[in-house]
Amino acid sequence: MERVCLLGATGSIGSSSLEVLRHNRERYRLVSACAGCNYQKLFEIIKEFNLEAAALYDEEAARQLRALVKEAGLKCEVLSGQEGVCALAGAPHDFTIAAIVGAAGLKPALAALNSGARVGLANKEALVMTGQLFFATAKARQAQVLPIDSEHSAIFQCLTERCQQELGRCDLKAAGVNKILLTGSGGPFRTLPLEELAHVKAAQALCHPTWSMGPKITIDSATMMNKGLEFIEARFLFNARAEDIEIVIHPQSVVHSMVSYQDGAVLAQLGRPDMKTPIARALAYPTRINAAVEPLDFTKLGQLTFFHPDFQRYPCLKLAIEASSAGQGQCVQLNAANECAVQAFLAGRIGYKRISDLCAQVLDKGVPHDFDAHSLEDIFALDAAARRQAQAYLQELA
């Protein structure tokens, strides 16, 4: 049986991962898991899967969890803080699902790579912030990276086997690829009059039309920053130039992405908007397993529509595409600024349209000339500086 570690066990990807593991107990054993502060939910996971180890970022939550584990007579080591989460991620496993949201998931994902485990990557920020360093680490440790984001999983499945085996350094031109077509739903405001976007509230933005996700990713989907971050992620995963990728709005979320080839063929991966499918694909690659997802009934699909994104409606998307060409430093700044802006929007501190404004202001500061994209210390220093700048702008808006 393969030993599995789940980073981000109590989030939406974590919940879907648990479902896949429940349907494949004869092949996989979940041995460790981590979360942020939800010790009650993590305790239920410990009991169900008889975990050997667990970790929580929050120290007080970890203390509560230790008490529950002891009271229940379970033999599960409970670690705490970022150090504990990274220690858990870096322990020997066959497969690690990296699903911690945001920059917080970067160090644990790198720790998993350093352990030599196969890593199913659902944390796009890891590549947005450290794409070059990430794949250099994977190569040095001979660790295989497999995409779990639905769009990147779709692209992965439509590429040649050689490209699949050479993520981060594959040769799209040699594989005959004309263009990667990265699809996105367009979020809940794709038809809202532009003048009304300034009045959008968090509760409206959290109502995604097709996907069930956590709050941060759901807001990113509304602004299409999520698609912008995926654009950056796709460039690193598939060693692609900006001109190799085209973003297409597809409201029905049935075609998860496509690859256009030089001979005129276009390969697409279709399926229900359910994260269990890409999780299962990564977990079992190169084979396939039961993901507990019903196949599509094409007679009931109805119309599938596609159109180009409007940058007036989605300025965050434009910022991300431009950052991807400006370099790793701007990608770090953009991610940090966006996390601060989304948090402020969810708290009611800024309006919806201020999210892109704040990101643009941080990017205008520029990247230090001596920034080293292969230095984790430089990456975190730039991330911290961008967050300070974002908070300063938020203070000005207050």
**Helical content (DSSP H or I, runs of 4+):** 40-55%
The strand line-up of the biggest sheet is 4-3-2-1-5-6-7
Rounded to the nearest angstrom, the radius of gyration is: 20 Å
SS strand fraction? 5-15%
Spans of at least 5 consecutive residues with low confidence: none
Tell me the span between the first and last alpha carbons: 54 Å
Q: What does the largest sheet look like?
A: 7 strands, parallel
Oligomer class: single chain
Overall spatial form: globular
**Protein structure class:** alpha/beta
Explain what you see.
This protein has 398 residues and is of the alpha/beta class. 46% of the residues lie in helices and 15% in strands. The chain contains 16 helices and 11 strands. The strands form 2 sheets. The protein has a 7-stranded parallel β-sheet, sandwiched between helices. The protein has a 4-stranded mixed β-sheet with strand order 9-8-10-11, covered by helices on one side. Strand 2 (28-35), helix 2 (39-49) and strand 3 (53-56) form a beta-alpha-beta unit. The relative contact order is 0.11. The mean pLDDT is 95.
Question: What are the SSEs and their pairings?
Answer:
Elements: E1 2-7, H1 12-22, E2 28-35, H2 39-49, E3 53-56, H3 59-72, E4 77-80, H4 81-89, E5 95-98, H5 106-114, E6 118-121, H6 124-141, E7 145-147, H7 150-158, H8 161-165, E8 177-184, H9 202-205, H10 215-223, H11 225-237, E9 245-249, E10 255-261, E11 266-270, H12 276-284, H13 315-326, H14 328-346, H15 354-364, H16 376-397
Helix pairs in contact: 2-3, 4-5, 5-6, 6-11, 6-14, 10-14, 11-13, 13-14, 13-15, 14-15, 14-16, 15-16
